[in-house]
Amino acid sequence: MSISKTTQNLLKSLLPDAIFLSLSHRQKVGRFPRLRHPVTFNEKILQRCLYPDPRYADLTDKLLVRDFIKRTIGEEHLIPLLASPETFTEADFAALPSSFAMKANHGSGFVKIVHDKTQTSFEELRALGESWLKTDFYDVARERHYRDIKPKLFFEALLIESDGNVPPDFKIHCFNQPSGAHQAYILHISDRFKAHPRGDFYDEEWNQLAVRIGHYPCSTVPTPRPAHLDAILACARSLSAPFDYVRVDLYAPGDRIYFGELTFTPGAGVYPLYPESIDYEWGRMLHSQPILPTLATATPDMRSREEERHAVDFAQR
């Protein structure tokens, strides 16, 4: 007997966060995680989902983070903000330029690229925006810091390369050790908004690495080293400096460098890494947090510690 999607979603919503994340990790990574004594990168990201640093919410909010970017690397690295209305109206739509990007601040995947405004409508964008704003992104993957982000639409200038395409993403995984050592791995995603996006990993010298993450296939031919790679890495290093780990997303059309977002829990701890040894290698570079939240990290509506203790014990079985 099949179970309806509504029933499945209801059952999922009743699961404590630790059990939900453990089952998701088992389904996508292939093994149950060790939440009490995490070893791999994904396991330590799961721990961040459960006990986020209090800084994560504001720095994950794609609007509030702009102040941090301005103070840290300069306003010139911010994509021009066209509008961030409390309510999206026909007047707001009329005031937008012929091309732009519509986004929401409170999650991943809330992006609509508009190359030609005459090919869309206010009604279409309003309906899409309303569906985004109704999405509780915490419910999607139980990344708890998303509960503290107030959903909001905003519109940015559309970044375009000289060939007319949207520039590739530089998703830079930054690790900072207590000794002061810094290491970065660059995931270069090209053709993201086309039918066949590709993801290639490079080290800081732009040597292609035999590493894959998630569903992205690798390119058959390595991408040429960006002319201003050193400047890209310098921006990422400055933005990542306050954290032991963060993924810094940047764009580099022409000779410019623009900030995309900061991600503290990539893939919500359930993104398969290939080969599997990378999950362990990155895990050794990321220091795990205490299994129970401190008063500073706990939020008023966080589930009781007793409930979490039982959930973690279940996940270890």
TrEMBL record:
InterPro entries: ATPgrasp_TupA (IPR029465). It comes from the Bacteria. Pfam families: ATPgrasp_TupA. This is Teichuronopeptide biosynthesis TupA-like protein. It comes from Caballeronia telluris. The lineage of its organism: Bacteria, Pseudomonadati, Pseudomonadota, Betaproteobacteria, Burkholderiales.
